[in-house]
Fold:
Amino acid sequence: MTSPIARDDFDRVLAEKLWTLVPQTYRDGDAEGANPGALRALIDIIAEQAAHLRRSHDRLWDDQMIELCADWAVPYIGALVATRVLPASATRGARIDVAKTIYYRKRKGTPAILEQLISDIAGWEGVVAEGFRRLARLPHGLDAPRDARAWAAMAPMGDPLVTARAGGPFDALQHLTDINAPVGRRGRFGINRVTLHLYRLRAYPLRAVRPRPHPVEADCYTFDPSGRDVPLLAVRGRSGADGSELDWDGWRPAQAWDVPAPIPCRLLGEEVFELTPATQLALQDHGLTDAQTDELTALFGRRLHGVSALRTALLTRPSSAVFLASGALTVIRETAIVEECGKRQLIPRSVSVEMDGAQAMAFETTRAGSLADWADPRMTSGLIIDPERGRLRFPSGTPGGLLTSDHFTGHADKIGAGGFARGRVLPAAPAAIVSDGAAINAAALPQSGALRIDDSASYGQPNNRSGIVDMDLHAADGARPYIELTGNWSLRAHPAGNARLLMDGLWIGALGGALLRLIGDWEEVRLTNMTLDPGGALSEDPASATLGGVELRVVGRVETLIVERSILNRVAVGINGQIEDLRLSDSIVQDPDALAPLRDTNITLDRSTVLGNLGGRQIDVSNSLITGTVDPRDTQNGCARFSAAPPGARLPHPYRCAAIAPGTTLFRSTRFGNPDFARLRAHGPAAIRTRGEGDAEMGAFHSLNDAARLAGLKTKVAEYAPFGILPIYQFET
Structure:
């Protein structure tokens, strides 16, 4: 059992103190002997153990409290409250489980606790649907009239939003009892069935992004600056304004707009109206008489779903022509829309389109609609948003000014560039700062120092730079700048060599493909949370246009290339180019010849996914997934453990490795831009999903440890669910 990492400097202080107690003659002899430094090394070892003992004494009181104790003390405190111990691999929820055991027991058996367990133990968002509440039955004489209608097994076919939600966590229809065993979406409706709908994606914000104009259709844009179709996500609603966890004493059931999932078009367009005295007062300010506004009193208390229902209700009033005039109808829509509807909740909280920092279109003229056909003639005015494809259109023309958007994108983990906190300590005083899409010229690229890009705007081709000694190019924390190359971008090391380069948090793309060229002699090049665009289809349509990728090419020598939590296209070397060591961790590389050209490189893959071929001089592979051929030059050295590759792969000294059968569909999506890019299918081969180290999945998302999270959740649900309940686990994302 080791102590937590401490920065108290005890090791150094105690080593110096002990060293001063050693007589000077022995210290001199240690420096001049046949094995100099041996005595000092022994003193350092003793000081290390003394520092460990000192920290243990200092933490004696802290280790009595679950909030402050070391990890080793968590199960001991858990034994005091007799909680069911989570599996050893489920480290995330162990401390929370012990801390909140009494809280859970007081509320045992309630839907609120089951949903809180999803958040606390698994770290996901979730919705609990009780099967008995969705069973159809005959109305009873003791039912209230409205309740009787709700229980009746009749689907409101006139409401497309209700029918679109059928079978999901927000299903409002009634079903017959399903006695089948729970498989997929079957067997979920019964008296003793409870379905836990799980959302594993996380929604991360992007601010002041520059939508990309369509190359052909005027006044049409994609939210994604590269031109891809990328679905927009709803921000997690059951949390504080700053993203903190919800105070669960004030728990409420989740609504469709509360879960971090791709926004359905119908949900974004959902408008519900209820006329109130405030509507009457607003119409009087608009010029209507008291007699006219009094006609609306009969409509008070009615929920009107959609503009069509509102128009129909207004047609029943004697002054309907006045109410349906464009100005009066706009006032009614502004004041009568209720908060509990998709449009009001999602705009602008989850998606906002702005012109020069203000709303591009009024709330009432912003609508949801399918933009599968960019030039749909039925759309004539306002702003149309297609959240499922991540598209927007101004049918009557784009207003003048700088067009930007604030929206959320979905990621399973912090891999590649994104609008999330990366946790890296950034330089306090960068040599240069760039923002608002300004040019990245040679003066902004320091030979020694840091360049920080402060926002998520789009940037053009940077200038080439030579004479680099120690350069740091990074995005501000939470920003995701998009740099679009129109040609190759070259970074040249100083002639003296041993240069260093760090690139962090940047997305580098190119319309027709480009090279990021590293020229000269580099000691270390490190890429963290980088996206070198892998290219590919712009949309899910079969006839979609494609985008070129950005290749990392070494024209010179790189002693060590380190890639962490990044997405790459292809890594190659030019003529006389060389990469001595390539270390990839928690990364995705997508290209048919992703790493095959690196015949003279020692390659280390740790928790990575390679959607292509792998070469190399010597390879060490751990918890990784390779879909192409594996052909290193040296198979006598190196190791492959807890990894998967196709049959015939030349893995050195394989240990607990799996073979990918030909024709196996492994991934939910291989199109970059899809939130499920490179995610394993839920029903893929079990050898790949659950037989990595620690029974986690193989590949880039190994660190998420989803299998252990689910196992821990099942353990706690079994402890706190009502007796006799059959829990069903359904992954929604």
In short: Residues 56 and 400 are 65 Å apart (CA to CA). The mean pLDDT is 86.
